[in-house]
């Protein structure tokens, strides 16, 4: 999965990055999702995860992005000012692809991106 802040602003660093990383873990445990790889860049997030059949991908992404935005706006109220215009922190879409035989390759790619 890959998702980005609105307008791909390079804001996912320092304390914002730490808060997002921690909350992704909490939300994933709550929904029964196993995070197998995570990489937070300044302007996007990569996740490799295993989602149980009872949770749809769109449901998980909606909850994840919604809860993260609420927490970020409560913790950092200045994010509600321009250029974010209100309560919209994330770009409205996301990219998802299923992984089969290439799972190890995808995990290595996500891990290698965190080194760069």
TrEMBL record:
Residues 2-113 form the Transposase IS200-like domain. GO terms for biological process: DNA transposition. Coiled coil: none annotated. InterPro entries: Transposase_17 (IPR002686), Transposase_17_sf (IPR036515). GO terms for molecular function: DNA binding; transposase activity. NCBIfam families: transpos_IS200. This is Transposase IS200-like domain-containing protein. It comes from Myroides odoratimimus.
């Amino acid at each position: 999965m890959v998702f980005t802040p609105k307008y791909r602003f390079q804001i996912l660093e320092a304390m914002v990055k730490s808060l997002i990383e921690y909350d992704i873990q909490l939300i994933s445990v709550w929904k029964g999702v196993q995070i197998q790889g995570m990489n937070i860049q300044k302007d996007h997030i990569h996740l490799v995860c295993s989602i149980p059949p009872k949770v749809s991908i769109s449901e998980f992404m909606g909850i994840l992005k919604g809860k993260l935005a609420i927490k970020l706006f409560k913790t950092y109220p200045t994010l509600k000012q321009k250029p974010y215009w209100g309560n919209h922190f994330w770009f409205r879409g996301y990219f998802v692809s299923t992984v089969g035989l290439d799972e190890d390759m995808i995990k290595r790619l996500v891990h290698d991106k965190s080194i760069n």
